[in-house]
Amino acid sequence: MAGKKQKVLVLGFNSRPLVYSLYQAGYEVFAVDFFGDVDLYPYVKDSVIITEKLGSSYGLLKDKFSSYLIDFTIELLEAYKDIDYLIIGSGLDDAFRERKALMKSIKRIGYSIISANNTIDIIKKARNIDFLFNLLHAKRYKTPKTYNLGEYINQSPPKPPELSFPLILKKKKSSGGLNVSKINSLRQLDLEIEILKSTQKNELTQWFFQEFLKGIPVSCTTISNGSESKIISTNRQIIGLDFVNAPHNFMYCGNIVPARLLEKDINLIEEISLYLANKLGLKGINGFDFVLRDHYPYLMEINPRIPGSIRASEEVLNLNLLDMHIQSFLPVCWKIIEKKLQSIHPNTYCTKLIFYAPNDLSAKQINAINQLEFVHDKSDPKTLISKREPVCTILYEDSTFSNSFFGALKIADKIKDIIKK
């Protein structure tokens, strides 16, 4: 007689990749998801789709996703009271109030669900760039020159930051390239500040200037148990790629795994990532974003949850990383995780690309795109896809770095051909 399947609830802006991996590992999976991609449903026992529940679109709801989290999650938990694990994915990195309220509700109702996530206190530290830079300075690691916007505004008259143009204006709560602008002149800076004063008057202290680092965007994926950490992969980041219609210059567009960098560069990226993971007491799988300039990695941010590169890493490593993520919260499993990671010898590369709509798409076009090989996170044809919204993900594995990347671009070309018809 087969044993009872363990049950996992996944919350996230795009939970499909996590759901797929958990299903493949033998879990019974439930999801509270924003998009409701058509290739999510074969792998979930049940789900709540926020855009469907509220009868609204990506453009209207994307900034309010976290505010709907609690009610829909509790709704699903009330229907399935024996769920074993909770995993919170993308879109909720800085939603501290909502996370706290959710965990409080779960505790009040008396569910015995295990949270396979970092604690709120640890997430706050991991998302606090000033705190992280102080940790790095203590070990003499370099960081980008950074100045708080509030200090600039409060000066009379305002004194320009001691940075040369171009510079970066960035919100402390940013993810995926949102709330990041490249500023090329003092005039543009003053204009951006006036806009912020009118639209985010109460959050001006949440913005800062940073020197613009021209280099290679990279990321590092780790797994931790709260005191020990191991490297999963070091990855290229694909940022603001025009070929896939990136809506913004700093928009996250995918990854190439592994990164194909000099060994000494990889060693330093991994050294810094492991130091921070252990210092923060992270648990599970987490992501660290850097810009590599002149062979030195400058930390940009930490994503204290499973990163977007996870499926590409799984393909290359031939490991089920979501299963390992859950195992990392169980002390008896750490030796098993270490053994699995010691045995990996990747000999392929995998590229992930997010394709954004160049214009509004019809149901016929979406249907045709969904039929293509190597396409995932398939949009529902019944849902309007507007210009600059994500359409799908491309995942392409090959024997070399260039073959993988250009193979993914060829799939993007096929999508463009469909859209042109």
Strand order of the largest sheet: 14-13-10-11-12-15-17-16
Rg is 21 Å
- Looking at this structure, what is the CATH superfamily of the largest domain? ATP-grasp fold, B domain
Q: How does the helix and strand content classify structurally? A: alpha+beta
Mean pLDDT: 93
Rounded to the nearest angstrom, the distance between the terminal CA atoms is 53 Å
The CATH C-level class name of the largest domain: Alpha Beta
CATH architecture of the largest domain: 2-Layer Sandwich
Q: In CATH terms, what is the fold-level topology of the largest domain?
A: D-amino Acid Aminotransferase, Chain A, domain 1
Shape: globular
Pick out the low-confidence regions. none
**Please, how many domains?**
3
- What proportion strand? 15-25%
Largest beta-sheet characterization: 8 strands, antiparallel
* Count of alpha/pi helices: 15
Number of strands: 17
Helical amount among residues, as a percent range?
25-40%
What can you see in these coordinates?
It is a single chain. The chain is of the alpha+beta class and 421 residues long. It has three domains: 7-117, NAD(P)-binding Rossmann-like Domain (Rossmann fold, 3-Layer(aba) Sandwich); 145-211, ATP-grasp fold, A domain (Dna Ligase, domain 1, 2-Layer Sandwich), CATH 3.30.1490; 216-420, D-amino Acid Aminotransferase, Chain A, domain 1. Helix content is 35%, strand content 25%. It is built from 15 helices and 17 strands. The chain has helices spanning 16-24, 50-54, 58-61, 69-79, 96-109, 120-126, 129-138, 149-153, 186-199, 263-280, 310-317, 321-327, 334-342, 363-370, 401-420, and strands at 7-12, 28-33, 46-49, 85-88, 114-115, 146-148, 167-171, 180-183, 207-211, 216-225, 229-239, 252-257, 283-293, 296-303, 349-356, 375-376, 390-398. The strands form three sheets. The chain has an eight-stranded antiparallel sheet with strand order 14-13-10-11-12-15-17-16, sandwiched between helices. A five-stranded parallel sheet has the order 3-2-1-4-5, sandwiched between helices. Strands 6-9-7-8 form a four-stranded antiparallel sheet. Helix 5 (96-109) links the parallel strand 4 and strand 5 (114-115). Helix 4 packs parallel to helix 5 (96-109). The mean pLDDT is 93.
